Automatic annotation (TrEMBL):
PANTHER family: METHYL-ACCEPTING CHEMOTAXIS PROTEIN MCPB (PTHR32089), METHYL-ACCEPTING CHEMOTAXIS PROTEIN TLPQ (PTHR32089:SF120)
GO biological process annotation, one example: chemotaxis
Alphabetic keyword roster: Coiled coil, Membrane, Transducer, Transmembrane, Transmembrane helix
Family statement drawn from the similarity comment of this UniProt entry: Belongs to the methyl-accepting chemotaxis (MCP) protein family.
Taxonomic source organism: Bowmanella dokdonensis
Protein's name according to its UniProt entry: Methyl-accepting chemotaxis protein
Transmembrane segments: 6-26, 33-49
Length: 520
């Protein structure tokens, strides 16, 4: 039975709601959403009567039946509006999250850009230092090349002098050979003279007194021959020593000449390498100058990009604040739509929402009575029933929790929850929840045995879990006669969630929630 209302109540209610929404949203920059919401809600009123500002003529006032139809249509349109509001809130929330993530990423990019800019400055300075060092290397290489060239010329002079000394020693060796030949001739003459003197002495001895004078001459000749022979031997020994030493000197000078030749080749190689180093240093110096120039330009571009990123980050931060305000206002709009829809649900006995509400209310009352019975019979203590200490279930991959009453709920809840679930064809779940979103026992369809497949078990076994999203938390925490939430799931599906408080001995335990799809 519909509650007694004056004929203009629905229209006035919509008008007041429009005014309230306008007052909430006009200061915001999203006037398009405001205008859309106001037009939709105002259209609901105009669709069933004249302008809210114009009183209905007495002859056209609706009958009670027409008022019932109007109220039913208003409830239906309010449900559609709640869906649109939920979709709008979902889109705004997602946009707010995307914008927040974008701002965060841009801040990270800005920080990275600052760091890159600083590193570019450091590299620019380092490149300048390296270019200066390269220039010094080029100068030093050039000086070294000049010194090596001078050394090469000096070595060439030494090589030439060594060759000349070698030739001179070779000449001395030849002359020493000639002297040795002469000494050999002199030695031969001395030997013959000595032999001749000996023969003369023999002959003078034969001659007696007549040969005495000749003997004296023979003795002198022999003495001279002996002295000549001795001197010749000494000269030969000196010539032989000179010959040996000349040979050694010639060998040493020849070896020195070969070493000097090798050093000359090495010096020339070093000179060539220093020349190549100087050329490379000059090329590197030019490349470093080009790099320094490019880095300077990049540094300017990075500085400009940093300024642009800072400006963009500032703009997005401002938009993020406005989006946060828009999100809050969208949530208020959603809350007002929920309140309006809840009011219409309790006023219209024929709507699908009213049927769900009746099922939820009856089920919550029956569960409360069963829990009161459990307390009175000692099946549970009040401390166990109202315990909010959630112990993680060990030995499984999924995050699940146990409470002192979880096993008891496993035994008693299916009877009530499955009956509520099967009462309407479009219901998806019907479960009891505590104020923190903890569901000890879900419906049978979502209480399948664990398989070890995380994705499959996440969908197939939803018992012993805490649903702490905004919708789930509100279901067990509120104490309103009913809370009808309309939200958009991450799958894109729009869902209604109707919840009522669950009391045990007049003490708020949590709530009973039913999720169902829109009928149209």
């Amino acid at each position: 039975m519909i509650r007694s209302l004056t004929p203009v109540a629905p229209v006035a209610l919509v008008t007041l709601l429009c005014m309230g929404l306008a007052l909430w949203l006009i200061p915001d920059q999203v006037v398009r959403f405001l205008v859309l919401a106001v037009i939709v809600l105002a259209a609901l009123a105009v669709a069933h009567g004249d302008s809210p500002a114009s009183p209905l003529p007495a002859e056209s006032q609706p009958t009670q039946g027409k008022l019932d139809d109007t109220l039913h249509q208003l409830a239906r349109n309010s449900g559609v509006n709640a869906i649109s509001t939920a979709e709008l809130s979902f889109a705004i929330t997602n946009l707010h999250e995307v914008l927040a993530n974008t701002v965060e990423r841009l801040e990270q990019v800005a920080q990275s850009s600052d760091a890159v800019n600083k590193r570019a400055q450091d590299i620019h300075h380092f490149t300048g230092d390296v270019a200066e060092a390269g220039e010094q290397t080029r100068l030093i290489s050039g000086q070294g090349q000049q010194q090596v060239q001078l050394l090469s010329r000096d070595i060439a002079d030494v090589v030439l002098a060594s060759r000349q000394a070698e030739q001179t020693i070779a000449g001395l060796r030849d002359k020493a050979e000639k002297i040795r030949s002469v000494t050999n001739v002199i030695q031969s003459i001395a030997d013959q003279t000595n032999l001749l003197a000996l023969n003369a002495a023999i002959e003078s001895a034969r001659a007696g007194e007549h040969g005495r004078g000749f003997a004296v001459v023979a003795d002198e000749v022999r003495t001279l021959a002996l002295r000549t022979s001795t001197a010749t031997v000494e000269v030969g020994e000196l010539v032989e020593a000179i010959h040996r030493e000349t040979q050694q000197a010639a060998g040493m000078i020849h070896s020195l000449a070969e070493q000097v030749d090798r050093q000359s080749d090495t010096s020339q190689m070093v000179a060539d390498q220093l020349g190549q180093i100087a050329n490379h240093a000059e090329a590197v110096d030019q490349q470093l100058k080009n790099i320094a120039s490019s880095l300077g330009e990049n540094q300017q571009d990075l500085a400009q990009n940093t300024l642009l990123l800072d400006s963009l980050t500032g703009d997005l931060s401002s938009q993020q604040k406005q989006m946060k305000q828009l999100t809050e206002r969208a949530q208020r709009l959603e809350s007002q739509a929920e309140q309006l829809l809840a009011l219409l649900v309790t006023s219209d006995d024929t709507s699908a929402h009213r049927r769900i509400y009746s099922i939820a209310e009856q089920t919550a009352r029956r569960i409360g009575q069963r829990l009161e019975q459990a307390l009175s019979q000692g099946e549970l203590t009040e401390a166990q029933l109202f315990c909010r200490d959630y112990k993680p279930v060990k030995g499984i991959v999924l995050t699940k929790f146990e409470t002192p009453y979880s096993a008891f709920f496993d035994r008693i809840l299916p009877e009530y929850q499955e009956q509520a679930l099967s009462s309407e064809s479009h219901t998806v779940y019907a479960i009891a929840t505590d104020p923190n979103g903890y569901v000890a026992r879900h419906n049978n369809g979502f209480n399948q045995p664990l398989t070890g497949d995380v994705k499959k078990d996440m969908l197939g076994n939803r018992s012993r879990r805490i649903f702490d999203d905004k919708t789930g938390l509100r279901c067990g925490a509120h104490t309103q006669p009913l809370l009808l939430q309309t939200y958009k799931r991450d799958t894109g599906e729009v869902m209604h969630d109707l919840s009522v408080p669950l009391y045990v001995n007049n003490k708020h335990w949590g709530g009973f929630r039913i999720g169902y799809r829109p009928l149209d």
